[in-house]
Specification:
The complex is a heterodimer.
Chain A (H helix, E strand, L loop, with lengths): L1 E9 L2 E10 L5 E5 L6 H8 L7 E5 L10 H7 E4 L11 H6 L8 H14 L15 H16 L4 E5 L7 H16 L3 E5 L3 H7 L2 E6 L2 E6 L1 H4 L2 H8 L3 E2 L6 E2 L1
Parallel strand pairs in A: 3-7, 3-8, 5-6, 6-7
Antiparallel strand pairs in A: 1-2, 1-4, 8-9, 10-11
Chain B lengths: L6 H18 L5 H6 L1 H35 L12 H15 L6 H22 L7 H26 L2 H11 L8 H17 L4 H8 L2 H6 L4 H23 L5 H13 L3 H25 L8 H25 L1
The chains are: A alpha/beta, B mainly alpha.
């Protein structure tokens, strides 16, 4: 996927502007930046949920601007930040919605079982999602979007790790790596700079709606740039990013 | 606790029982209904259509309740929220207060037009908002229209003669005394149309429960689904209200009970809620006719009197289940 000079306005305010970015097959791209930098908006543009005010979006050379919602859903799977569920849907029911557009029932059932196992929620399958803990709910939503991503090419995740414990963070990043290794691509918004350093193929640093830098973690995550963008003195001594 | 798989067959068993009870409870002994010529006439021209209409209206109200609660993602939403029933009430009250010397059939036309004018107004107000918040705008617009409607009805009641006032009151609390076979046919048609339209779209409603962004990213055209659902709710409510006046609580409580019984997935909630709504109405109507026979209570009072305790007991059960 390629983004050329993408800009999004809300009213007179530009949320993001002049973004030049591409996502390649086989890679994990992580979006970094302070709160309100426009990371989520950019992700929504890539999911086709927000139409850009300026610029051009290309997916495998095609222009997806006029795609139907179904075409989008079959190509790109997007997981927004966790939102509350007020209805008593069960874990299995929510995860199964990931294959909303799929035709074959048999295949659907197998894929559902797989999703429940991979995300370590099969023992919760018949529980109501709204009574689970935050981390468990996050895994349910991750499993749903993972299931949807299986039929697509691009998997977009907005702060997938925020509620997860160490073990499930590792599991999530491993599943993202497997997905990318299958010749597809993952883009995620993440706040943990050390995890980005460790796990991203490339990172993009946003600030105030502008793309400050993109490249490998070593190229982008520099003391001076991070200190400037996050407005706090940062040290990267010994490959560990921390504030001073 | 009842096993989930047993609930659908038990409900199906409940339907004929309710219908039979509805037919034979009333101001006359049932041997008279069965044997005498007048009794037969009462049975076929009055009692039967009335019981069937009660079932159909309950079913349609419950269906509308499931749809509106799903589409606004709030289990406490009532189909009356979008202002349609208020509009219908204004139409009917206008007829009763000012135009009752015209043929009675016009009351239906007044109610129906009132309902759709209210919907147009609500949509006009509601859909002018940003698409993301369209549903909350819509509900606020519905509330405004309902307030306006009750003010107009108040004004009309003030102006109306004593007998018209009594009729307005009766109508705004709901009554099945106007039941006939044409209404049964009309409600059946609505229900059949809904049966044709909705089953293949129920999973889209499930997806909408996750949130609008989530549903869109799952491939659901959310704006279209919301718009069509609102129009369906308006259609169902306007027909039901025109047939029987405003009947509260059934549309709110049936989906809720259904959800407590079988969970939230629409393919299970909808049939259970619809059957429950129908049965609740038939029983409520039987009670309305039997309690102070040969006079009858407005059925809306009975549905609320019957429905509220059921609702409260279910809430208490749920609360207990959560507290251990």
């Amino acid at each position: 996927m390629q983004l050329h000079n993408i800009g999004v306005n809300r009213g007179a305010v530009a949320i993001v502007d002049g973004i030049e970015l591409s996502v390649r097959r086989g890679e994990i791209l992580m979006l970094l930046g302070p709160n309100g930098a426009g990371k989520s908006t950019l992700l929504q543009v890539m999911a086709g949920l927000e139409s850009p005010s300026r610029g051009e979006l290309k997916l495998d050379g095609e222009q997806p601007q006029h795609w139907s919602r179904q075409q989008w859903a079959n190509t790109v799977s997007f997981l927004p930040q966790l939102s509350a569920l007020s209805f008593p849907l069960t874990v299995a029911e929510v995860v199964a919605l990931g294959s909303l557009n799929q035709q074959s029932v048999v295949h659907e059932r197998q894929a559902l079982q797989q999703a429940l196992q991979y995300w370590d929620i099969d023992y919760l399958a018949q529980q109501q999602v709204r009574w689970l803990s935050g981390g468990e709910q996050q895994r349910v939503q991750l499993a749903r979007s993972w299931l949807q991503a299986q039929q697509g090419q691009l998997w977009l995740l907005d702060e997938p790790l925020s509620a997860l414990d160490l073990r499930h963070q590792k599991q999530c990043l491993q599943l993202a790596r497997d997905y990318a290794s299958a010749g597809k691509a993952v883009v995620m918004v993440i706040h943990d700079l050390n995890l980005a350093w460790q796990c991203a193929d490339r990172v993009a640093l946003l600030c105030c709606g502008r793309l400050m830098a993109q490249g490998t973690p070593e190229q982008v995550l520099k003391e001076s740039l991070l200190s400037e963008v996050f407005e706090v003195p940062v040290s990267t001594v010994g490959g560990v990013i921390r504030w001073r | 606790m009842l096993r989930r798989e047993l609930i659908p067959p038990l409900l199906l068993l409940l339907v004929p029982l309710c219908l039979l009870a509805g037919v034979f409870i009333g101001s006359q002994s049932w041997s008279w209904l069965w044997q005498s010529g007048t009794g037969q006439m009462v049975l076929w021209q009055i009692r039967m259509p009335r019981v069937l209409l009660a079932f159909l209206i309950g079913a349609v109200l419950a269906w509308a309740g499931v749809l509106i609660q799903g589409v606004v993602r709030n289990p406490l939403a009532d189909p009356g929220l979008i202002g349609v029933s208020g509009g219908a009430a204004v139409g009917a009250a206008l007829y009763l207060a000012l135009a009752s010397h015209w043929p009675v059939a016009l009351q239906t036309l007044f109610a129906f037009s009132g309902a759709w004018l209210a919907l147009l107004l609500v949509l006009r107000l509601g859909l002018s908002g940003a698409s993301l918040h369209a549903m909350s705008f819509l509900i606020l617009a519905g509330i405004a229209v309902n307030v306006m409607a009750s003010a107009v009805i108040g004004l009309l009641s003030y102006l109306a003669s004593d007998s018209a006032l009594r009729q307005i009151t009766f109508w705004s609390l709901g009554s099945l005394s106007g039941a006939n076979w044409s209404w049964v046919a009309a409600l059946t048609a609505v229900l059949l149309a809904a049966l044709w339209y909705w089953p293949k779209r129920l999973r889209q409603l499930d997806a909408l429960l996750l949130g609008e962004t989530e549903a869109r990213s799952l491939g659901v055209n959310v704006a279209q689904l919301q718009g069509r659902t609102v129009v369906w709710v308006a259609l169902m409510i306007s027909v039901a209200v025109s047939a029987s006046g405003i009947i509260g609580f059934v549309g709110l409580v049936s989906p809720h009970i259904a959800r407590l019984l079988v969970g939230a997935a629409h393919r299970r909630v909808l049939p259970v809620a619809v059957v429950l709504g129908g049965c609740l109405m038939v029983l409520a109507d039987a009670v309305a006719r039997a309690l102070i026979a040969p006079a009858e209570l407005p059925i809306g009072i009975v549905t609320s009197l019957l429905g509220a305790p059921v609702f409260i007991s279910l809430l208490l059960r749920e609360k207990r289940r959560l507290s251990w």
